Amino acid sequence: MPPLPVLLYHSVRDDPPGWLAPYTVSRAAFAAQLDALIASGRTPVTCGQIAAARTGGPPLPENAVAVTFDDGYLDFERNALPQLAARGIPATLFVTTGALAPRNHSLLPDVAMLSLGAVARLGAAGVEIGAHTHAHPQLDTLHPSAAAWELTHSKEILEQALGHEIALAAYPHGYSNPRVRELARDAGYRAAFAVRERLSPETDEPYRIARLTVKSDTPAARFGAWLQGAGAPVATPRERASTLAWRYYRRARARVGIPCPLAESR
Ligand SMILES: [Zn+2]
């Protein structure tokens, strides 16, 4: 079974605030990417299908692809969903519950967020909803009890609003470590998604499924290569030394209260 591209989007709009712009895809670029996805002959699958396949369930179709969105921006419903629906492409939306309208706790400044009611409506309409913590912290820098709370509180809020189990999580910024992955399992998630900028192989860890970030400057050629199962490394269980060094650096920064950019991902 060839490795699978799991695409990670944040925002689809033409007028993003500056801090979000690098992680925003214009409406025209998004439409072109979805057309390329369809033209590639890949079969869009849900993250739930990936989770099942990675935990001994039914295998994915050959040439699967998945489309995910992090954070819960209002433009998902306005700009992304109509384009997805027009092509019959399923999507998974990982929601930061503490950033939802009208609260938004100033977590994600100057940007319109979905409300919890809208998320429930999207879920009822067939969008797969996952949790993306409550306050969007770097989970691997938190005390385990705080990280556990982030994972369970967001899950409970969504489960109450949607009326069914929330089985999937995505780590803010993609950051996790073995302890965080254990906490995600203990919280009752069946799988969790990281970033890693890698294709996800059949052997990918269920609590660290690799995704590829689609950014404002992602060239069409690279996007096309991902759809060919190329253009990015295939995820392996071993953590790169640079990832570990970067984590210690971020932990030190978190301790002295220097924020990292919210959409930064690794
Ligand atoms: Zn996020």
Terminal residue distance: 25 Å
- The fraction of residues in strands falls at 15-25%
The number of helical elements comes to 8
The small molecules bound here are: zinc ion
Major sheet: 8 strands, parallel
Query: What value does the average pLDDT take?
Result: 91
Order of helices and strands: EEEHEHEHEHEHEHEEHH
Name given to the CATH homologous superfamily: Glycoside hydrolase/deacetylase
Could you name the ranges where pLDDT drops below 50 across 5 or more consecutive residues? 256-266
Shape: globular
CATH structural architecture: Alpha-Beta Barrel
* CATH third-level topology: TIM Barrel
CATH level 1 class label:
Alpha Beta
Write the layout of secondary structure elements.
Blueprint: E1 6-9, E2 11-12, E3 24-25, H1 27-39, E4 43-44, H2 47-54, E5 64-71, H3 74-87, E6 92-95, H4 116-124, E7 128-131, H5 144-162, E8 168-170, H6 178-186, E9 191-196, E10 209-213, H7 220-227, H8 241-255
Parallel strand pairs: 1-5, 1-10, 2-3, 4-5, 5-6, 6-7, 8-9, 9-10
The site of zinc ion (ZN) has 5 residues, from β5.
